[in-house]
Amino acid sequence: MLQHQFPSVQSNAAAYLQHLCFGDNKIKAEIRRQGGIQLLVDLLDHRMTEVHRSACGALRNLVYGKANDDNKIALKNCGGIPALVRLLRKTTDLEIRELVTGVLWNLSSCDALKMPIIQDTLAVLTNAVIIPHSGWENSPLQDDRKIQLHSSQVLRNATGCLRNVSSAGEEARRRMRECEGLTDALLYVIQSALGSSEIDSKTVENCVCILRNLSYRLAAETSQGQHMGTDELDGLLCGEAGGKDAESSGCWGKKKKKKKSQDQWDGVGPLPDCAEPPKGIQMLWHPSIVKPYLTLLSECSNADTLEGAAGALQNLAAGSWKWSVYIRAAVRKEKGLPILVELLRIDNDRVVCAVATALRNMALDVRNKELIGKYAMRDLVHRLPGGNNSNNAASKAMSDDTVTAVCCTLHEVITKNMENAKALRDAGGIEKLVGISKSKGDKHSPKVVKAASQVLNSMWQYRDLRSLYKKDGWSQYHFVASSSTIERDRQRPYSSSRTPSISPVRVSPNNRSASAPASPREMISLKERKTDYESTGSNATYHGTKGEHTSRKDTMTAQNTGISTLYRNSYGAPTEDIKHNQVSAQPVPQEPSRKDYETYQPFQNSTRNYDESFFEDQVHHRPPASEYTMHLGLKSTGNYVDFYSAARPYSELNYETSHYPASPDSWV
Fold it and tell me: Where is the composition biased (Polar residues) (predicted)?
């Protein structure tokens, strides 16, 4: 019937196939075996619009769901992706454009098709959908036009597709960064949504997650990062270290203290070497991007967007290249530290995990470290499980990855800062850390125990504080006995059974610090951290190496610089497709699994797989527009879900909120 001479028969046959295969994977497989996918792809070049509509609807259902990856590959082998691109180029029918981008969104959840989709569709999706629908070329937009553009389902589908494929590895990120107009349009969508109800929309969420993925390993993967010279890097690091550390000793004795480099920027005054406004790829790392991210973090109630924005800042603040230094200063200048600290109180495990690792990267800046230790220590300690706090249910409910992230942040904050170590003791952190480290794996996983032990071991290095510890009833046994195996374990190679995603240690010559992928949910492994923080040894770093499709978590040592950074790996979506506009009964939204989360890099966020594909629809009985609105965004089987309430679910930990007084370094 699909080959019938009458277009009306072909259209009805395709529509009936769409109806038959709705929710039935067996029928979908049978249609593939009977050659139905090839016939439907052939109909995409038909002359009749109604045939296009029915064929796209059937294909969308056929390639919905992770269980139907064979159908997705079959569609690609039949030349389906180029056919969809041709149809998207020539059609002006809004519904068909929505269907075509929906098919592409479903296809993008298959790892094997991510690079082919980038090769065939990136330019078309950018120039024919994202740029026109974002309004970037026509900016400034009128207020009434913003809502219309951001509620566009075509834009939502296109950004959902690119969100998935942005986790396909280094080559995918390179192509997307170099795609003219893509970064500008994505940022414009975010900026024009600020202050409106669209800030919590799926489109904004997709844009944030794409930008987070593209912010991953910028220093190592871009020409600007690779061309950064050793002298320039040394000057920036010396500028951050300050004081005695500004004079470093080399093979021939102490180097003379250089004059303040023009490249050093502390967040005040004009930015060095930035005479022209940033554009294109430069916008990914320019400090001006900090403000939109911070606005999202302070105003948005979509937990996935919050996690994505925090992860983007985490990626940008990772490492030691010039722009990472600038980003850390810009966050302080824009009063971003209190915003991040406030989000530690959110009752959402993934958000707390992302924010904690972002704070850890921010603490690489000496002044940020002082401010975090002074004003955020209590919030960090309250996120640790244990202690005498009667209202500690929220902390107990946190995942091991989040607890590990908090411990690693504490570890960075007290490194080379005795006042912060004392603040940790004053906040009651020792009791909780000792409780974790002495649990022997009964209550906490080995990585959590090691993370807590690492913090305690570093606290013991401050001899001037030992009298205070002993006055509180603590002895050396509480600080170092439990961490006696850390150094031994550090020498041991990683076991493949240790975590689901461990990759070999790599050292980045560009960052001069190694980074290892660890997913948003699979946080920090501490095997590469040295026990003595006074040395120039390594700190745990997060870096995404997989590229990639599944969550990866590796730890690496920071070489030479002694600076630990955390990168968040590819920010990909869930492993399953999303149902939108489903005509039949909609299942209750549920939290998706996180197995496809890419890792956090050395304080750099990651490119996680956003395998949130589009939807599966029954043909006929098309619901009215009101029903579309009702169902949209209800369920996502991906990393991100769409059913968070408008109000932020703050944790009910029993402690008072600190009022941050004005400080010389502009905390508030």
Answer: 493-502
Separation between Cα atoms, residue 649 and residue 412, nearest integer Å = 28
Indicate the helix (H) or strand (E) that contains 54.
helix 49-62
Dihedral sign for Cα 459, 464, 468, 469, please: positive
Q: Are 79 and 116 in contact (CB under 8 A)?
A: no
All structural domains of the chain with their residue ranges:
1-109, 124-226+277-334
Q: What is the pLDDT of residues 70-120, one digit of tens each?
A: 999 999 999 999 999 999 999 999 999 999 999 999 999 999 999 999 999
Query: Do the Cβ atoms of 412 and 360 come closer than 8 Å?
Result: yes
Task: Tell me which DSSP letter residue 465 carries.
Answer: G
Q: Which tokens belong to 233? A: 């890097």
Residue 230 has pLDDT above 50, yes or no: no
Contacts by residues 91-100 (CB-CB < 8 Å, ≥ 24 positions apart): 91/49, 91/52, 93/49, 93/52, 93/53, 94/154, 95/53, 96/49, 96/52, 96/53, 96/56, 97/129, 97/154, 98/153, 98/154, 98/157, 99/53, 99/56, 99/57, 99/60, 100/56
365 vs 644: CA distance, rounded Å: 34
Q: What is the DSSP letter of 586?
A: P
Q: What integer pLDDT is reported at residue 503 of this predicted model?
A: 32
CATH number among 1.20.810.10, 2.60.120.10, 1.25.10.10, 3.40.50.970, domain 1-109? 1.25.10.10
Buried (b) or exposed (e) across 437-454, using 16+ Cβ within 10 A?
Answer: bbbeeeebeebbbbbbbb
Q: Is the peptide bond before 277 cis (omega within 30 degrees of 0)?
A: no
Please tell me the total number of residues recorded for the chain in this structure: 668
CATH 3.55.40.10 assigned to 124-226+277-334: no
Do 1-109 and 124-226+277-334 fold alike per CATH? Answer: yes
